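Records of this kind hold a single protein each, on a pair of labelled lines. Below, a sample record shows both lines together.
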Amino acid sequence: MLRWKQMVLVALALAVVGCSSSKTKELPPAELQEFTSEVQLKEQWSRSIGEGQGETYNQLTPAVDGQSLYVTDSEGLVMALNRESGDVIWKKELDVPVSGGVGAGYGLVLLGTLRGEVIALDAASGDEKWRSRASSEVLAPPVTNGDIVVAHTQDDKLFAFDASTGDRRWLYEESMPVLTLRGTGAPVVTNRYVVAGLSSGKVIALDTQRGLPLWEQVVAVPQGRSELDRMVDINGGMLLSGSTLYVTTYHGRVAGLDLESGRMLWQRDASSYTGVAEGFGNVYVSLDNGTVEAVDQNSSSALWSNESLARRQLSAPAVLSSYVVVGDFEGYIHLLSQVDGHMAGREKLGNGGIRVRPLVDGDWMYVYGNGGKLVAYTIR
């Protein structure tokens, strides 16, 4: 039964998400329209990272810590690069397929595997510091606050390990719906809170020391007649800005929550399996139908909506300078104006598609294609 369920999860993720019990024929992805470019990206360096995202629906995201950029492929190749030159600092070949990564901070590089393991490497050398067992696939980057490392597994369990030794500190378990999308969002970890979005459409905050629940908030309630319609997964990574936590769900809502209490500050109907970004007082979300939308952080009203990328399987958005950036299934990088959402620029990374959110650090942006091409860009 478990094996069958996992196959269903993979099938759901590999389909054009926005799946429906309807027999209506799906429309093709929108053709790209010509426009007058206002901004261009300058390629600073590029590098091939092994097998990239691999054959399954992995979302392996690079991470920056200091002057180093850490990246992994699906076969267990982990690399540390100089973020400005792309030069290799170290390279490590693990003996397991990687499905969750990369988490980085406090001297650690953190990865999760298809075998349900969490692996911690030394950030300076790549040497393995510890390896600990979880209950199932780890599909999101493990995260750390320097004291504990937290991993969210596919079966909606949260494991906290000692950051120094890998010994398990605590475990939080949550029951799962019958069907879920393949994937989880990375938890948010502070000195006091571990906050995670679950496949039930609920956000829960736990105490970092003991894993005891502090608050929970239902962001989306399952609706519909079929199990497919009732999926309300929180798959995209949550965004913490100040004391506000931004979250989006599949078949549900985009919302802002108060970190201390879990109180819903605002909410708006939305369906997304990626995540959110913020800038100019707005929250940006890539909807599952390919619409990119800007939502006012204070009023929850939509300030603009760009529908020109319909059904192009967009990545989560990122904010670079004055632009909202998304990748698509053909490997295009699209830059939209933060002001009104009009198309301002476009670049082609390659033919393998872009599934993971572009990583922005200051004036630099790192885009990791599904086929393993990693490119560092700045704005010309």
Notes: The chain is about 5% helix and 45% strand. The first helix runs from residue 2 to 14.
